[in-house]
Amino acid sequence: MTLAIVLLCIVALIVLISAFKINAFTAFLVISLLAGVLLGMPLATIPKSIEKGIGDTLGSLVMILCLGAMLGKLLAESGAAQKVAAALMRAFGPKYIQWAMVVAGFVIGIPLYYGVGFVLMVPLIFSIVYQYRLPAIYLGLPMLSALSVTHGFLPPHPSPSALVVQFHANMGLTLLYGLAVAVPTIIVAGPLFAQTLKKIEAHPLETFVSMPAATANEPGTANSFFTALLPVLLLMVAALFPLLSNNPQFHNVVTLFGQPSVVMLLAVVYATYSLGLRSGRSMTQVMTIYGDAIKDISMILLIIGASGALKQVLTDSGASNEIAGLLQHVALPPLVLGWLMAAILRACVGSATVAGLTTAGLIGPLLLQTHTNPNLMVLAVGAGSLMFSHVNDSGFWMFKEYFNISVKDTLRSWSVMEALVGTVGLVGVLVLNELVTY
């Protein structure tokens, strides 16, 4: 009976979001309340569970997500992101320009949220399409595959960051494993798959082609690269330090400065100077950019918090443990099961973030009972949440409209690319599972 109630609530959540177009934050709260009632929780305790779920989920994430948004916004506004892309174009040259797009998408995709990266990079893609007279899908899809992979696999993006917290994983190790999985995934879903799409006729609108921007106050190329990658470098150093040195003198210092929230704070402080004050912006202007960044992700924060409310209701009612016990008898490895649940929810809801966070609430107890590597479960759920992008996904329509192609060609290119990302990502996770011990 418990499993039937949980499935009913998930279906209701999907219907509210997909069919009735209810905001995901509101839908999560309504379903959390409904689940508590149907699962027999004392009525007075349901609001407390919802509040605890929101507080526990956001408590450790607000700093990471808000500071990540600030850094990404400043990278875009200062011209640093464009500087990185332009430098890669020059380095690779016209012959290998597709690979330059991949590297640009990967580097820029780490600090920038997917929507920001998409809107920022698409005009660059179109400018190169017109300059070199190359097929737009063939050139653009590899970059967008890199953006998609970083969005689903790598902290400090919202979904993987939230999954790290919910699964009690290690942010640095998850990032290292994510990088190992991301590279082959991008190569298969990007440049290799794009070779089959040269005949798709796309006519990108010239409206989306960016005009050359003023360069007087733009940051330098080295500064742009270093600032964009600083969070990754700090997290990697913190993750690798215990393997390289046993010196206790520096252990506490590395532990402090290796915390994700501290890493992001250090990166933003440095970016405030390197991309802001040093480039001629006043502190007031930089703070305005940061304020706009928080507005951009406010709804993402609310959705993540509300997903924690549903997870807490399922936990406090005992439903999660009961479902975990039932799932133990399913003839699928936990990593594959987590991937499959996220993939099904992605197909139904359309949002990769919602699919990943909903799966976390269901698969969490099984993770503990089966002693599955939590870092790899983050990646498995992330890969599943990128599967099956179709007409209920906003990314699907952004790709179609920007590239000005038919729904059929969008399914053939964008949807297949996302499916490849999810599938190859799972294969990479399973390979890593055989190689790592923690």
From TrEMBL:
GO terms for cellular component: plasma membrane. Keywords: Cell membrane, Membrane, Transmembrane, Transmembrane helix, Transport. It comes from the Bacteria. It is a multi-pass membrane protein. The chain crosses the membrane at residues 29-46, 58-76, 96-129, 136-154, 174-194, 225-244, 256-276, 297-315, 335-368, 375-391, 411-432. It is found in: Cell membrane. GO terms for molecular function: gluconate transmembrane transporter activity. Pfam families: GntP_permease. Belongs to the GntP permease family. This is Gluconate transporter. It comes from Hymenobacter crusticola. The lineage of its organism: Bacteria, Pseudomonadati, Bacteroidota, Cytophagia, Cytophagales.
